[in-house]
Every structure is written in C-alpha cells, then in structure tokens.
Amino acid sequence: MTKKYLIDGLKKVMKPYLDEHGITIKQNRSIVKSDDDLRCQIMFNFNNYGTIEIQAVFTVLRYNHLEKAIIDIVYNGGVDIVTLQPYSAKYIKERYEFIETMRGPLFKGEVVEFFVDEQIDLLAEFLIEFIEQQVKPFCEKYPDIYSIGPEFYKYDPPYQEGVGYVGLFEEYLGNLNKYQGDYTSWIIRRLLLLKFTADPKYDDYMKWIQECRDTGQIFPYLHNFIDKVIAYPIPKFYLK
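^ that's the sequence the OP posted. Answer follows.
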C-alpha cells in the first residue's frame, strides 16, 4: 500500500464527515481546517519501508496573520547565512507553510502497519473520534490570539508591579529551554502577541528586552528583528 493509496482511501471513506465540517485532507498527509485566521492541522508521522507505518498523529495550530508577520520579520529582506544570497520567494513560502504557533493533542501508540483496505476504515474511525474528542475542544479553547496568551506568559521573565519585567536575558532563555522549538521565532512571536493584542505590558516588555540588548545580553542578529517588531504594522484583521 502506498501513501497516495492510503490518503485517497481516507478521503473517500471520510468524505461525508469532511464535507460537513469543512475539513480537507491533503496529499502531504495532513488534515486541515481553516478560518480567517486560525488554521488547525493534523499530521501523520509516516515511515515507508515497503509498507506504510503510522507512528503518531499530532495537532498543530497556526494563526495566519501572526505567523505571516514572523515570516516577514525573519526572512523578507534577509540573507541566507550559507549562500549569502537573499532568501528566495519559494524558500519564504515553504517556511510559512510549515511554521506553527503551538502544538495540540498528540496520539502516540503502537506503530501501525497498513496492508489492507479494512485498515483504512479503522483509521478513518479513529481520526473522527480523535478530532471530535480531542482536537475540536482544543481548537475551541484557543480560537484566536487573545486566548493563547497564557501559554506564552508562563515563560516570561519575572514581572514586578511598578517596575516592569526584570531578570537577565540568559535566565529567560533558560525558561525557553522547556519549550521545544526555535527560540528566535518564540521571542518575536511573544513580542508580536503583546503588540497585536494591545496588551498593556507591551511597553514594559519592550523596555526590558531593549535594556537587555543595550547591555550586550542579546545576540547581535536579534537586534534587527526587535527593530522590525517595533515598526511592523498591526494587521487589519486584528484591528477589528
């Protein structure tokens, strides 16, 4: 059984459910539901050594306007450190396709090998149950960028009323070690969340991170990104 055969089979078996809920299965082994900003994506972790194996199913949320801003800040006008050439439009598009705001429900059980059509029916039943019981409640909990704040605040440096954020940048990075991902994008995302949601702590946070920069605590390549965050206009979608 090939990956294409499996995906085409899922599309056929799940069609009534997919059509009812506005969900799409793509050939890149992902199940996607999007609205004006939130994109919920369920991914299969495939291995293919003669047979198809699914090792895990995981969920990714992306808030389109927020993540586009991160891509603009990091890549547009930037230079590849290997080739020393400007990032191509194709490269930037690929980065946007795979960027994620946060991870959601994960299923990791026994590795399942696929040989026969009956297994596609069983996988469809599992996926519908997984979506209904875990993915939908998760997406409903985080419908917009205002709702995801607490998931990012918990990594913030200490905050003192009347003073603002305190602590060393190195300590902040130590907190981010608990987060699995690119800390550069995380820092930019955190600043943009404060800015795009008109959070009253934005000025305090920006003052702290600029002090860290002025005292040589922040890596030089981050300096330009911070200036770009300050200059970046709030997307019209978030001004509604």
